[in-house]
Amino acid sequence: MERIDLSAPRGLIPLFEAISNSIDAIEERKLTPSDGRIRIRLIERHDLATEGHDPTILFDGFEISDNGIGFTQRNITSFGEAYTLSKVKLGGKGVGRFMYLKVFQQVEVRSVFEAEAGGLLRAFRFNIDDEMAGSDTTSPTDEPVGTTIVMQGLDQKYQAAWPRDPETIAKRIIEHFLIRFAARLCPRIILEASGFEAVNVNDLYDQTVQPHIQERFFTVGKNTFAVQAFRNKDGRAKHEYHLCANGREVTTARLRDLMPELPEKLTDDQQASYALIVLVTGEYLDDHANRERTSILFQSDDALDLDRTLLSKAELTKALAESLREVLVEDLKTTNTEKVAQIERFVEKAPEYRVLMRERYRTLIQKKIQPGLSDEKLDEALLHLRREIEDGVRKEERHVAARMETESFDAYEQQIKKLMEDMNDVGKSKLADYIAHRRVILDLIGHSLKRAYEDDKYPLERVLHKMIFPMGATSKDIFFEQQNLWLIDERLCFHTLLTSDKKLNSVRGLEGTSGKEPDIFSFFYDTPVGVSEPGDGSGGVVIIEFKRPGRDDYRSDPTEQITQRFYEISNGGVKDVDGRPINPTNLRYVGYLIADITPTMQRQVDMLYNKTADGEGYFKTLAGGRGYVEIISYDRLVKDAMRRNRVLFDKLGVHKD
C-alpha cells in the first residue's frame, strides 16, 4: 500500500472509487440506471472542537449504500486481490481498496447477495492490521440485496481536501462522473448530511450543468458523432476531450493539442475562468472500443488497413475541432482579438510576416497560433504557418499544371486565379523577409562600428568579415541568404565560385598560384551579370580585403596585397569551373579594400589614387584598363548600402531616420 501515492488534494478519491464500485454492482445486477439507487451519508466528526460547540461542521467519513449485486463469492475474491484483473473489462484499476486505507483508518462492509439457498449476509471490517478478517463468513438473511460500506477516521493529511458543504461534494461527484450523467447512465444518487438538506445529485446535474452543455453533431464519412461541451469553472480543471463508448470514458487527451488557439483558461462575462470538458460519443466508438474499454480501434496512420470501415483518428479529431470552433465562437472572440492585436504589434518588428495579416489568412491565424506566446515563440509559429502556406501553394501549383494538360482553361480558370493570388502573397512574404534581413545586417554593422568608436576598442576585421561572408567557407558551403556581398556591390551576389580565407592554390583552376589567403575571392565566368560581357570567353576576378576598423599604421600601399594576388592569378594557369583553361589576358580584375580612411592611409594613397567625390574613398584603374581597385570606408559602406536599399525599406516600413 505504501507504493500507492495519493496526494492530499485527492482525498475524495475513495468516495469516487466507492461510487464507481456501486455503479458496477448495479450494472452487474442488470438493473437500469433508473432502477439503480446509491445513497451517501456524510459522517460528522466528533472531537474536542465539535464537543466544544464549534459551529463548523467537519466530516470524518461517509456511508455509501447501493442496491447492486452485492459481495458474491466472485466479487469478494476480487476485492481481496491487490491488483485484481476482474474489473479490467470495466476499465477499473483494481487498487480501490488500497485507496480506502490511504485516507481512512477503518472500513466496514455489510453486503447482502443472492445465493442458491437464498439471501446471504457478508459483514467484515477491512483495515491494515486485520486485512479482511471474517470476510469469508456468511449468514442467511431476509434483508434486501445490496451493499453498505462505511469509511471513517479521515487521516489528517486529507482533511483539508474534504469540503464542508455537501453540495460542493455533490458537484465534485458530478465532475468526476460527468460522462455518465451526460449519457443518462448514472443511477439515482442521494447525498445526505446531518444539519443539511439532502441533495439529489442527478437533479443538481439537471439544474446546474445540463443547461450549460452545448451539443453538436458532426459526421466523418458515414459515421455520425455527438459532441457535448461543458464549461467547467473548477480552477483545477484543464481543457480535455474524452472519447466515450457505451456510456464510459475510454480515452482522454488535451484539447489544446487539437485547438492551439485555446488559451490556458477561458473567461466569461463576469471574468470567471473556466475550462472546456468535451465528451464525444457515437456508434463507431461503441462498436470499436476494446473489451477492456481502454482504447478504440482506428485506421493506422502509417499503413493501409484492409478494413475500409475503420476511421482515421486524425480525421475524427479534425472534424471534432471544426465542430467545436462553431460552438466556441463567442468564447474565443476576446482571445482572438487580443491575439491578432499582439501579432500586429509583433509584425511591426518582423514585417516579413505582414502578408499573414491579410483577411484571407485571418482564420488560419486564429486556428494555428496559440495566444499569449513570447516574441520568440510567436516568430517560430508564424514562420511555421508561412511555410505551411508556401507548401500548400506548391502543391496547388502542381495540381493546376496537371489539369492544364487535360482540361480547358475555362475548367480551371478560377483555380488558377486563386493560385496566382496565393503565389503573389508568398512572393511578397519572401521578398519582405529578405529586405528585413538586409535591414538587420545594416543595423548590426552600424551598431558594431558605433560601439567600437565609443569604447575606443575597435573589433578585428573578422567581425565585419563574418557578417558579409562566413570565414573559411565557399559559395558551395552556404545558402545564398548567408552571404551579404550586396553591402559592397549588388553584382557580387552573382558569382560562379566564391571562397573566403582559402589559399589561392587550393581553388580549382589556381593550383599554380601562391598559398596566400585573400579575405574574399570571387570568380565571375561567362555571365552577363558582374563584370564580363557574355559570349567573349572572358570572366572576372574580384578580391576583397578587410582592414581592422581604426587602423592607423600603414607604411605602404594598403592595396598591394590585392594587386599581388591579381598578378599571381594572371600567371597561374586559370581554368573555369569545368576545368577549361581561360586566357588570362581577357580577365578583368576588381579589388575592394574595406578600411577606415586614417591619416597614415591617406599619406600612402593620396598621390597614387583618385579621391571619390564624397571624400570617403579612393580608386585607381589597373594598367591596360584591365580593372580597378577601390578603397571604401566602413562609414561609406554602410551609408551607400542604406541609400541603395532605402526605397525597399520605405515600402516595407522598416526605414529608420
Describe, in plain words, how this protein is organized in 3D.
With 657 residues, the protein is of the alpha+beta class. It is 35% helix and 21% strand. It contains 17 helices and 21 strands. The strands form three sheets. Strands 5-4-3-6-2-1-7-8 form an eight-stranded mixed β-sheet. Strands 15-16-17-18-21-20-19 form a seven-stranded mixed β-sheet. Strands 9, 10, 11, 12, 13 and 14 form a six-stranded mixed β-sheet that branches. Helix 15 links the parallel strand 17 and strand 18. Helix 1 packs antiparallel against helix 4, helix 12 runs antiparallel to helix 13 and helix 13 packs antiparallel against helix 17. The longest helix has 47 residues. The two termini are 72 Å apart.
Blueprint of the fold:
Layout: H1 13-28, E1 37-44, H2 48-51, E2 59-66, H3 73-79, H4 96-103, E3 104-115, E4 118-126, E5 138-140, E6 146-154, H5 166-176, H6 178-182, E7 188-193, E8 199-200, H7 201-208, E9 214-220, E10 223-232, E11 240-245, E12 248-254, E13 266-267, E14 273-282, H8 283-288, H9 313-327, H10 333-349, H11 362-368, H12 375-406, H13 409-455, H14 461-468, E15 497-500, E16 520-525, E17 539-546, H15 560-570, E18 588-594, H16 599-605, E19 610-611, E20 617-621, E21 627-632, H17 634-652
Parallel strand pairs: 1-7, 11-14, 17-18, 18-21
Antiparallel strand pairs: 1-2, 2-6, 3-4, 3-6, 4-5, 7-8, 9-10, 10-14, 11-12, 13-14, 15-16, 16-17, 19-20, 20-21
Helix pairs in contact: 1-4, 5-7, 12-13, 13-17
